[in-house]
Amino acid sequence: xxxxxxxxxxxxxxxxxxxxxxxxxxxxxxxxxxxxxxxxxxxxxxxxxxxxxxxxxxxxxxxxxxxxxxxxxxxxxxxxxxxxxxxxxxxxxxxxxxxxxxxxxxxxxxxxxxxxxxxxxxxxxxxxxxxxxxxxxxxxxxxxxxxxxxxxxxxxxxxx
Length: 160
Hints:
By secondary structure, the protein is α/β, with parallel strands linked by helices. The protein has one domain: 3-Layer(aba) Sandwich (Rossmann fold). Helices cover 29% and strands 21% of the residues. Helix 1 links the parallel strand 1 and strand 2. The chain is globular and about 45 Å long.
């Protein structure tokens, strides 16, 4: 799902793993919203070294990911401005390079990466159970979560 623009919005996750697919579902709805027609939307199951090519050439990026901590409540949305961020599920994969390593590699290779990167992390309940339906605690917060993400995207568009 893409449209033209200087900002890329990437949602990470798999819809086959309950709440892990939340960012993918959000991207599906955001990409059809006319307010955001100037943004480019993509989904990716991973956030490792592939990020370099996904973000190359964009002036800004918004990364939607999930996190599961012992302190958060399901549906809680946190917004970080890179380089100050908490680790999220897909940006900190033990099976690939970390987000920090990917950014450093991109810089060393001279790849034009976004000057501004925002990370929106949503606390989830279950990212290990197979199933396309999200947890009731996430489904109950879906409108609030979408509103928080839309606010971030509107802020991004205003700073252009």
